[in-house]
Amino acid sequence: MKRSGLSDFGLDYFSLIGRKFQERESKIRERTICFKTCSKCGETKLISKFSLDKRNPDGRTNICKACRVLEAEKYYYKNKGRRELK
Ligand SMILES: [Zn+2]
């Protein structure tokens, strides 16, 4: 007789979680394409270079991560400068 125990339970549990995760992943992949053109720098980059954005129909932001970082820095220094002027 096969020993039933934690290892069996563990395997079932993790395969279930894995399946759920794969389902979710494939759903995300269905919506996304491999490449996307950044609306800021106009460069076509890998989809992984774009942050996730649930509000966007393709699930990614229109601006690449690099541009978002630049934007955030610009915003930061702009605000910092403004604050210092006051
Ligand atoms: Zn960009």
Keywords:
Wheat Germ Agglutinin (Isolectin 2), domain 1; binds zinc ion; alpha+beta; two-stranded antiparallel sheet; 86 residues; elongated; two-stranded antiparallel ribbon
Structural overview:
This protein has 86 residues and is α+β, with helices and mostly antiparallel strands. It has 2 domains: 1-31; 33-86, Wheat Germ Agglutinin (Isolectin 2), domain 1 (2-Layer Sandwich). Helices cover 55% and strands 16% of the residues. It has helices at residues 6-31, 65-85; strands at residues 35-37, 44-46, 50-52, 60-64. The protein has a two-stranded antiparallel sheet with strand order 1-2. A two-stranded antiparallel sheet has the order 3-4. A hairpin with a 6-residue loop joins strand 1 (35-37) and strand 2. The model has no long low-confidence stretch (mean pLDDT 81). The chain binds zinc ion.
Please state the average pLDDT score: 81
Gyration radius over CA: 22 Å
CATH class of the largest domain: Alpha Beta
Find the structural class using helix and strand composition.
alpha+beta
The CATH architecture of the largest domain can be given as: 2-Layer Sandwich
What about the largest sheet?
Answer: 2 strands, antiparallel
Shape: elongated
Helix content: 40-55%
Number of distinct beta strands: 4
> Which ligands does the model contain, each kind named once?
zinc ion
- How is the largest sheet built, in terms of strand order? 1-2
